[in-house]
Each structure stands twice: as C-alpha cells, then as structure tokens.
Amino acid sequence: MLSVKTLGAESGPVEAVLTRPRRPRGLVPEIVDTLAADMREGRLQTGDKLPTESELMGRFEVSRTVVREAISRLQASGLVETRHGIGTFVMAPQEQSNFRIAPEDFATVADVISLLELRISLESEAASLAAQRRDDSHLHNMASALAAFEASIAESSDAVPSDFQFHMEVARATGNRHFADLMTYLGTMIIPRTRINTASSAPEGRLAYLRRVHTEHQNIYNAIRQRDADTARTAMRTHLSNSRERLRRAQPDSPT
After folding, report:
1. What is the CATH number of domain 103-250?
2. Which CATH fold would you assign to the domain 2-90?
3. Reported pTM
C-alpha cells in the first residue's frame, strides 16, 4: 500500500492510505489536482511557498521528474510561479473573463482539432515574429525546452510540460505579451496528448511519434535562430498541421 500526506488545517500532515497501486501516468495529474485543491481550499494561499521538490517527492512518493512535470503544469495554468534560486510560489487567482476555453470543452477529437486550427493561425505568426525579434536569452530558453523534451522521451514521459514550454518560449520571443498571455491562459491543454493519447495510438509507436515531434520543434528553433521569418512561419504551420492530420487519421471514421 502507498501513503500520501495531505495538509491539515491545524493538526499538521494527515496520512491517507491508498489501497490500490497508482500507475505512473496518473501521478502527475494526481499531484496537480491535490496542490490545486490545497490552493482552492485555502491550505495554500497567495504568496505561500510550495514545498521543495524533495519534500514533494517524499509526500507523494514519486520521482523528481514527476514532481517537475506537475509543477510545470501548475505554472502553465497560472497557479504558481517559480523564482529561480528561491522557490515556487502560489499566485493570486486570475480574474474571470467572458472569454473562456476550459478542459471540458475538449471532450472529442473534433474539439481538439478545432483548437489546433486556432493555434495554426496564431502560432505560425508568432514564430515569424519570434524569428525577427528574438534575443540570445530566448534562444537559450527554447534550447532548454528542447533538451527537456528529449530527456522526457528517454524517461518514458509524455513530454507535455517541455512541449508546452517550447511553444511558450516561442510566444515570449515575439516581444508581444498578448501571445504569451494567451498561451498561459490555455495552459498545457493546448497539447493534444493531454486530451487524447496520441503518442500511444500513433501507427509508428510512441517513441517514433515523439521523436518526430521533437524534429519538428528543432526545425522551428533553427529557423528562429537563423532569423528566417518565412521559414519559421512555415515550420510552425507544418508542425501544427501535422498534429491536426495525425488526429484526423486517429478518428474511428477516418478514411484509410
């Protein structure tokens, strides 16, 4: 049996016993949901520092990689921010707006494809602007995301956090905060693998699928590094269009 410690209101950590084993792919959402609930219910408040990676590893009995993926998803959702060398802190709740795209809006393959069509329009132009406006720090951050993606492939991870981070860094390199704000608002649900297990269902298998995605990311990065706006735009459009076509082929009624 496994035990997970949850934060008590006054009496300190409370230990809950799990009677069934947890599968590795379910660990990241479990940590995200638990910490998000702690924030929502006031056990973690705005400005509070999250436990360290080591403390979270002990609390949930998981690896450092799993903890980092969970923190990345919380960051992408705008719930926490990491201050390098200091720690990760709870952010103030974001104001509600009339415009809303929620995870429950993506229940079908068609829903995910509709978001990809929006991304093709926005992110292709973002890549072009990034090629024109990027600086060395942007390139460094993109390269770090690429390296993390490659490491995730070797660790049998779904590579969602590093995938999202790469697209976020491209948005930041535009110099237009609205691109990054929209990416932050949408969070990791923009990655089809968070809604549909495209890696496992890919005809070529998980490893080849993720390597192909990695190669497409590298093509985008190289064009931005070379300040080739047209090629960057085309590379991003090709990458997202390929994702859309992979999803279309995965639909049960898709022609073969």
Report:
1. 1.20.120.530
2. Arc Repressor Mutant, subunit A (1.10.10)
3. 0.62
Tokens of 175: 């110099």
Instruction: Give the residue extent of every domain in the chain.
Output: 2-90, 103-250
Q: What is the DSSP letter of 3?
A: E
8 Å CB contact between 250 and 164: no
CB 127 within 8 A of CB 170: yes
Helix, strand or coil, per DSSP, at residue 87: strand
DSSP tag of 48: P
Residue 71 to residues 60, 102, 153, Cα–Cα distance (Å): 13, 20, 18
Name 112's Cβ contacts closer than 8 Å, sequence gap at least 6: 106, 192, 195, 196, 247
Mean pLDDT, residues 29-45? 90
Angle between helices 177-186 and 160-173 (to 10 degrees): 160
pLDDT in tens, 99-118: 556 555 556 778 788 888 98
Give the model's pLDDT for residue 196. Answer: 57
Q: What's the alpha-carbon Rg for the chain, to the nearest Å?
A: 19
Cα–Cα distance between 234 and 217 in angstroms, integer? 12
Distance CA 98, CA 130 (A): 29
Instruction: Average the pLDDT over 82-86 and give the result.
Output: 82
Instruction: Quote the DSSP letter at residue 227.
Output: T
